[in-house]
């Protein structure tokens, strides 16, 4: 349409800027999550993720070395606070800068760096911006002085959150549970739906139109209706809350979309191919397995992606049809019910858990977007 | 048993069972019940072909009937009984619901969601579709706007917690407010407007869906109509709103209704963000607060959702039947 729309260059420029703004707005929240998942807990609470590449000012607590008696009788402790045991690991890169220091926890930044602080009783302490300190006292002390200081900390990115999430919080178990729910719940409906879709598309029998209408109607039945009666049914027939139960439930809930999508696609297959196969003596079963099924691959792939995303991301069905013990929680339930409660303030862990749970769907999405779009279009554009 | 092993067995049994069912049922039909030999081969073949569609359809009809059709009736019947399910109480559950303020809040909020989310998603999707269609990097832009579609509602809620957090060092909104010297504020606790902050999350997810479908529809518009409008001197806005939008109206309706139905199912966002507190409950999340505790009430809420969806259902069936003719 470019050549006929007769656009002015000003308009093109405006369109570019608008789309760029839209894309940035759409991406910002996810980028925030991703960045936060790699930051240290202290850094997350000290500055926003958008400041992650910059240094943050954090308050540290450490203890200086033990004072040594000098020839004049006073006691002196000297050294560099960045090298003290308690903070060594945070300043491993060696580019920390002290901005202020203090000796009491209620006033950790009482004195600007480089000034000599008079602590009373003849004690003095000075901490320079480069971290070197000098503490003098007239009397013998058994321990080094307690020093608080505020320092510019270089940005730090770590995989600690991922380590915690994947090992300590049962998230590894939840990940495997999600996978266990998803794969059978994606594979099983496809076959059932494909046969039904073929019958609805290419076989003639009374009541076909009615059945198609019924499938269209069932597409919009709210899941909420199914929860109570089906859970009861599962309990009556002995499945109860279990993986078998959730596989069956997902199969049932996914079928209307599967039948609808596949039928819409199969109806569009060229009539010639199907009729000439019939003339050559192929039975419906052969026709379906040898010709229609291979030709319908794009629609099958589209539904598989839908069903995969839907079952992976589902919270409602998992909450109702799976037991609520820790051993069978899927990731969405784990995050919504456990982490948000117990680790509500631990943003790094939350971000990481969320990212672990959305990583697989995002991979599938970007790898198979073509099929997803095609499937969407088969479902809604005529 | 280890769930993974159980899962693998299920796949094998499920897929193998389906294949075996379809294969052997066809075989038995053709060789045993109506063999194409003997006295009346022609009649037998015809009869076999009359039965065969039902062989193909049976598993799907059975599963659909059991998992979707039966619950509609089952839920309705259950909603007429009391909490324990032992006593028939007629429409008492419904009467109690409509009398409770919690339900009325949820109903009113749901109405807001149904009005606002489809409208905003469709509009933004339409704008995004039209704008990206003309760009060289439009495909990338589209794919990035479409991306939230793959993210779970729970994941999306967590993502947006980093925007809404009541802390200028975590929440983006409060960081921007802090730049202008305002105090931090928990946007999820502002009465009434907090609903809209929750809706934004769903709009963020659904705009990509609307965009993808509408962009295909826009491409399907015959070029002659556009050329004619340009020759007649239509500006870009006139072209868009008076020529293009009316031609893709049927698709807009499909997108709108699809998102409307989705809105009535999503309880995850409210559940994760506010737990239904601060006056943000909607019907699906309100139902979950009764789930496992009072099945009578829970099914009554579910049935109310069903009634709200009914018009969309009839409209869809009507459209589908019109297309088939």
How would you describe this protein?
The complex is a heterodimer of chains A (382) and B (325). Helices cover 57% and strands 13% of the residues of chain A. With 382 residues, chain A is α+β, with helices and mostly antiparallel strands. Chain A folds into three domains: 2-51; 56-153, no CATH class; 162-380, MetI-like fold (Orthogonal Bundle), CATH 1.10.3720. In chain A, the strands form two sheets. In chain A, strands 2-3-8-7-6 form a five-stranded antiparallel sheet, with no helix packed on it. In chain A, strands 1-9-4-5 form a four-stranded antiparallel sheet. In chain A, strand 4 and strand 5 (111-112) form a beta hairpin. In chain A, helix 2 packs across helix 14 (347-367), helix 11 packs across helix 15 (369-380) and helix 13 packs antiparallel against helix 14 (347-367). The two termini of chain A are 22 Å apart. Chain B starts with a helix and ends with a helix. Chain B contains 14 helices and no strands. Chain B folds into two domains: 3-78; 94-324, MetI-like fold (Orthogonal Bundle).
Please provide the ordered H/E string of secondary-structure elements of chain A.
HHHEEEEEEEEEHHHHHHHHHHHH
Estimate what percentage of residues of chain A fall within beta strands.
5-15%
CATH class of the largest domain in chain B: Mainly Alpha
How many β-strand stretches of chain B?
0
Most residues in contact: chain pair: A-B, 121 and 117 residues
Low-confidence stretches of chain B: none
Measured by DSSP, the beta-strand proportion of chain B falls in: under 5%
Class inferred from helices and paired strands of chain A: alpha+beta
Q: Per CATH, which architecture of the largest domain in chain B?
A: Orthogonal Bundle
* Class computed from helices, strands and strand pairing of chain B: mainly alpha
Largest sheet of chain A: 5 strands, antiparallel
The CATH architecture of the largest domain in chain A is: Orthogonal Bundle
Oligomer: heterodimer
Main beta-sheet annotation of chain B = none
């Amino acid at each position: 349409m470019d050549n006929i729309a007769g656009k002015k260059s000003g308009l093109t420029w405006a369109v570019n800027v608008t789309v760029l703004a839209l894309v940035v707005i759409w991406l910002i929240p996810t980028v925030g999550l991703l960045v936060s998942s790699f930051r240290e807990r202290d850094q997350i609470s000290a500055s926003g993720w958008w400041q992650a590449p910059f240094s943050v000012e954090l308050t540290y607590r450490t203890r200086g070395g033990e004072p040594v008696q000098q020839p004049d009788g006073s006691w002196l402790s000297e050294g560099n606070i960045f090298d003290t045991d308690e903070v060594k690991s945070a300043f491993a890169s060696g580019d920390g800068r002290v901005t202020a220091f203090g000796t009491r926890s209620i006033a950790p930044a009482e004195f600007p760096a480089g000034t000599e602080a008079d602590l009373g009783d003849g004690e003095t302490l000075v901490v320079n911006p480069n971290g070197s300190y000098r503490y003098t006292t007239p009397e013998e002390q058994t321990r080094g002085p307690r020093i608080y200081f505020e320092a510019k900390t270089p940005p730090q990115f770590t995989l600690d959150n991922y380590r915690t999430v994947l090992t300590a919080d049962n998230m590894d178990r939840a990940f495997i549970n999600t996978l266990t729910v998803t794969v059978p719940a994606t594979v099983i409906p496809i076959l059932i739906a494909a046969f039904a879709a073929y019958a609805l598309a290419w076989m003639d029998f009374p009541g076909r139109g009615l059945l198609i209408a019924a499938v269209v109607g069932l597409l919009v039945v709210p899941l909420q209706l199914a929860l109570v009666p089906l859970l009861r049914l599962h309990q009556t027939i002995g499945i109860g809350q279990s993986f078998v139960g959730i596989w069956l439930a997902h199969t049932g809930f996914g079928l209307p979309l599967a039948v609808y999508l596949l039928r819409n696609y199969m109806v569009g297959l060229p009539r010639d191919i199907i009729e000439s196969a019939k003339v050559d003596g192929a039975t419906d079963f052969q026709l379906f397995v040898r010709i229609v099924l291979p030709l319908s691959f794009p629609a099958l792939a589209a539904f598989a992606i839908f069903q995969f995303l839907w079952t992976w991301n589902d919270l409602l069905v998992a909450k109702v049809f799976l037991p609520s013990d820790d051993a069978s929680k899927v990731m969405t339930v784990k995050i919504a019910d456990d982490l948000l409660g117990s680790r509500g303030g631990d943003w790094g862990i939350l971000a990481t858990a969320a990212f672990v749970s959305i990583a697989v769907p995002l991979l599938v999405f970007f790898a198979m977007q073509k099929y997803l779009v095609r499937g969407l279009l088969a479902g809604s554009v005529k | 048993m280890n769930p993974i092993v159980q899962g693998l067995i299920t796949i094998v049994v499920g897929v193998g069972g389906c294949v075996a069912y379809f294969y052997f049922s066809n075989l038995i039909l053709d060789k045993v019940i109506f063999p194409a030999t003997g006295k009346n081969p022609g009649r037998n073949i015809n009869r076999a072909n009359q039965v065969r569609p039902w062989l193909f359809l049976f598993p799907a009809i059975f599963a659909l009937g059991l998992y979707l059709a039966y619950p509609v009736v089952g839920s309705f019947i259950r909603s007429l009984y009391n909490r324990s399910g032992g006593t028939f109480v007629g429409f008492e559950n419904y009467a109690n619901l409509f009398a409770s303020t919690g339900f009325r809040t949820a109903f009113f909020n749901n109405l807001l969601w149904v009005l606002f989310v489809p409208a905003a998603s469709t509009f933004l999707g339409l704008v995004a579709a039209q704008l990206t269609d003309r760009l060289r990097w439009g495909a990338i832009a589209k794919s990035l706007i479409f991306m939230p579609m793959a993210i779970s509602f729970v994941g999306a809620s967590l993502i947006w917690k980093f925007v809404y957090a009541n802390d200028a060092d975590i929440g983006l909104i409060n960081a921007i407010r802090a730049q202008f010297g305002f105090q931090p504020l928990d946007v999820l606790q502002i009465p009434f407007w907090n609903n809209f902050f929750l809706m934004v999350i769903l709009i963020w997810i659904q705009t990509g869906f609307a965009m993808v479908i509408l962009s295909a529809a826009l491409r399907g518009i015959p070029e002659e109509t556009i050329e004619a409008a340009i020759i007649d001197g239509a500006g870009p806005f006139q072209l868009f709103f008076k020529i293009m939008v009316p031609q893709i109206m049927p698709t807009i309706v499909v997108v709108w209704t699809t998102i409307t139905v989705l809105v009535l199912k999503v309880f995850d966002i409210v559940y994760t963000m506010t737990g239904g507190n601060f006056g943000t409950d909607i019907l699906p999340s309100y139902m979950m607060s009764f789930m496992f505790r009072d099945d009578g009430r829970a099914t009554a809420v579910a049935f109310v959702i069903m009634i709200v969806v009914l018009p969309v259902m009839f409209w869809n069936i009507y459209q589908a039947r019109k297309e088939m003719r």
